[in-house]
Design brief:
With about 625 residues, this protein is mainly alpha-helical. The protein is globular, with a radius of gyration of 30 Å. Its main location: membrane.
């Protein structure tokens, strides 16, 4: 297994180095094929290891080398293969290889083709390092690596100033969370004299429930997760990250990087289970994020911005599950979300490709007849995320809703309301884009065409996963023989026995029925509104009331600009003023004073030996007289 594990992580690194150094000299097909194959090879190796694993297999730690020692603490550069890391590896490399294949067609005319694929391979390497590392320090290296790759890929078209600003915004906001993560790791090392997962999990049991140290550590780790997984208040970077090419949005900001925070919490379950107060905070922040992002998504008109706020909202769902202690449910929704959200982003990319780079839904319409394959796959993704029965998103969301019911019926209702908003903005997107009359220009209409096979094949594969992915963890009442039962697969990664309080079958079925009914009502109302009655999206300046709040994103960016950016800029100007008006004159004064003193001393230091002897004699005489008087 050791060589296989090394191959998983080194293949994408080799692809990065190859394309980064000599990719420009090679044909684009060679560059794209090589970059795709190294990721797909990693996926195949992961599947091979997965087939040799079962739910009772113990974690395998593979030590590459001894890294360093500090205070008697041995830090190894090692990888840990267990049920959780295998699940993440297959998601990263499986979906990653599909997105690499898609990018061959999508980026075929871009001058930075080889650079783009080098960045993608480097991202896959960094993400694998994050989930495969056996300790928090290796996780942090991968964590920073995906942050750097995110910056490079969001600002890929760096000649556009706005794209550069979006990349910087993502980088800076993630640094806030990263600082908290570093602090948390330092405190873990100080308290437990170890940072590897297995030792920390063994030492965690000595702490009391909700002890101040554990609460501090878990809050620090969670703040790190807030930054990477775009939760309130550090979520505004993710919608702006849509400045990058669409495959970037699908890979980094839907399926993998933004789920790193969820992975961190689940990997650290042995700490979070000891801090119920932190879990409560996680639940409420996740709930607030899901509601706020869903509300903002209701009246966005950029097709990628709708999906971006949808991602923030769905991440909120995952944190709701984490806060309810349903770690497996959070991972299940992470997986199904990776399927249908990658599908939706790539489908949006296919639409944008067909529309000659147009992203405004108000200028689309009637595309289902022009690009039928994109429409069918996008429809499947929309039905999955909206919670239509038998699709993967419905099964994972119902698990979250069941967990919230156990926690509180009020939280269940608010979570259901957020799920309902998901249906509203997604069906609005679907109907404005694919139904009705075409609202673009005649020039755009002439050039509408279906995407090439390199782009449509990934759509088909992801559509199948979005449709059937829920069978991995069907509800318990369906029967184990029809499901892989993800909760059994992940059971051994939890130090403390994680058992969800079960609700009666009739109540669980009733909750599912309510959810399905709500979604079907929304589908009927939105279909009548946008298809039958032909309602179109208004110009942004014509929105009023709550619609204006939604289209203006609750003015959160403006609030941050006024309360954070402006004061910092003011401090910068004040510092510049202090430097110019006070510090510079003072240093000039000191310099001029020293210069004048030197000029004055030149009169005495003139090289005349007789004067030096006279001064010395006078000084000696004065000293003798003073000494005589004092005696």
């Amino acid at each position: 297994m050791e060589n296989l594990v090394y191959a998983i992580i080194l293949l994408p690194l080799a692809g990065f180095l190859f394309n980064g150094f000599i990719g420009k000299k090679l044909p684009k097909l060679v560059v794209g094929t090589l970059a795709t194959l190294v990721v797909f090879a990693s996926f195949c190796i992961a599947v091979k290891i997965f087939l040799g694993f079962d739910e009772n297999s113990s974690p395998v730690v593979i030590k590459a080398f001894e890294w360093f020692q500090v205070n008697g603490m041995q830090i190894n550069f090692a990888f840990q293969i267990d049920q959780l890391s295998l699940m993440m590896i297959m998601i990263i490399t499986g979906i990653g290889s599909l997105i690499h294949l898609y990018s061959i067609g999508y980026m075929s005319h871009d001058k930075g083709f080889s650079r783009f694929f080098a960045y993608l391979n480097l991202f896959i390497f960094s993400m694998l390092l994050l989930v495969m590392g056996s300790n928090y320090l290796i996780l942090f290296i991968g964590w920073e690596g995906v942050g750097v790759c995110s910056y490079l890929l969001i600002g890929f078209w760096y000649k556009n100033e706005d794209f550069g600003k979006a990349a910087r915004k993502a980088f800076i906001m993630n640094r806030i969370g990263d600082l908290a993560l570093v602090v948390g790791i330092f405190v873990i090392a100080q308290q437990m004299n170890a940072i590897d997962y297995m030792t920390v999990s063994q030492n965690a049991g000595k702490f009391e429930l909700n002890s101040p140290v554990i609460v501090f550590i878990t809050l620090s780790l969670f703040i790190g997760a807030i930054g990477k997984s775009a939760q309130i208040p550090l979520f505004t970077w993710l919608p702006d990250a849509m400045a990058g090419p669409t495959p970037v949005s699908a890979l980094i900001h839907a399926a993998t990087m933004v789920t790193a925070g969820v992975y961190l919490v689940v990997r650290s379950n042995f700490l979070f289970s000891l801090a119920p107060s932190t879990l409560d905070i996680i639940l409420f922040i996740g709930l607030a994020t899901s509601l706020v992002a869903a509300f903002i998504g209701l009246r966005q008109n950029d097709i990628k911005k709708v999906l971006a706020y949808s991602t923030v909202s769905q991440l909120g769902f995952m944190f709701i599950a984490l806060g309810a202690g349903a770690y497996t449910t959070a991972m299940f929704h992470l997986m199904t979300h990776a399927f249908f959200k990658a599908l939706l982003f790539l489908g949006a990319g296919s639409v944008i490709h067909a529309m000659s780079d147009e992203q405004d839904m108000r200028k689309m319409g009637g595309l289902r007849k022009k690009i039928p394959l994109t429409y069918i796959t996008f429809l499947i993704g929309t039905l999955a995320i909206s919670g239509i029965p038998f699709f993967s998103g419905m099964i994972s969301k119902d698990e979250i809703l069941a967990a919230t019911w156990v926690k509180s019926p009020v939280i269940w209702f608010l979570t259901l309301f957020s799920a309902a908003l998901t249906g509203v903005y997604m069906f609005r997107l679907l109907f404005l884009t694919f139904f009705g009359e075409f609202r673009g220009t005649e020039e755009q209409k002439k050039h509408i065409h279906e995407s090439p096979a390199t782009m449509t094949i990934p759509l088909i594969v992801l559509a199948v996963l979005a449709l059937f992915g829920g069978f991995i963890n069907l509800p318990h009442f369906v029967g184990h023989e029809y499901s892989l039962k993800l909760d059994h697969w992940l059971h051994h990664i939890y130090l403390f026995d994680v058992q969800q309080a079960e609700i009666p079958l009739w109540k669980e079925l009733s909750l599912m029925a309510v959810t399905v009914l709500v979604v079907l009502v929304i589908l009927f109302v939105l279909y009548k509104m946008y298809v039958k009655n032909g309602k179109a999206a208004l110009p942004e300046n014509e929105y009023t009331g709550w619609e204006r709040l939604s289209t203006k994103k609750l003015f959160i960016d403006e609030i941050y600009h006024a309360t954070v950016v402006k004061p910092i800029e003011g401090l910068g100007r004040a510092g510049k003023m202090f430097d110019k008006e006070i510090l510079t004159p003072f240093t000039d004064f000191v310099g001029i004073g020293a210069e004048d003193t030197g000029k004055s001393m030149k009169r005495f230091q003139n090289g005349n030996v007789e004067n030096y002897v006279l001064i010395m004699s006078l000084a000696i005489g004065i000293i003798l007289i003073v000494n005589f008087i004092l005696q």
